[in-house]
Amino acid sequence: MSEPMIALSIAVLTISDTRTEATDRSGQALVERFTDAGHRLVEKRIVPDDVYRIRAVVAGWIAAPEVQVILTTGGTGFTGRDSTPEAVSVLLDKRIEGFGELFRQLSWQEIGSSTVQSRCLGGLANATVVFCLPGSTGACRTAWHGILAEQLDSRHKPCNFANLVIPERGQHG
Questions:
Q1: Burial status of residue 66 (CB atoms within 10 A of its CB: 0-12, 13-18, 19 or more)
Q2: Which CDD domains match (predicted)?
């Protein structure tokens, strides 16, 4: 890759009724990985697993021109309060169907059939790419190394999501 990578501006939302900044290992793992790759953190927040609070934060970031990528962690399972897919899916202009499919394929190698309980999702909204990941640190690592590191790299060929959110490109690149 001879051309320089174009750094993206990323916001991270941890969805949890129990985590704090001191105990949020998954959100911190994502921040470490993408900043090590050369991207920028715009904002990091923690909200309880509540459809309307999640939706409000994500909608605000989708509307913010300085946010190109939103990564959420948590709330994608099947327990009573897991509500990230319900909160975020209505905000998306287009779903990235292959994201959940590929994540579960990669996850199968690590956790076997338990991967069927992941309701992770991805999509595009207002020239912002959104990825909703499970809350475990391992799942965040799997998503980053198996999918997001390449798809958020403007140099990755034949296509990537970075080139869809970079204003002057707006295409696959």
A1: exposed
A2: MogA_MoaB
| CA–CA separation, 14 and 60 (whole Å) | 15
* Boundaries of every domain in the chain: 9-165
Query: Domain 9-165 class?
Result: alpha beta
What CA–CA distance (Å, rounded) separates 166 from 163?
Answer: 5
Q: Partners of 131 in the beta sheet?
A: 71, 122
C-alpha span between 163 and 108 (Å, rounded): 29
Q: For 54-90, how does the pLDDT look when each residue is reduced to its tens digit (9 = 90+)?
A: 999 999 999 999 999 999 999 888 887 889 999 999 9
Higher pLDDT, 31 or 81: 31
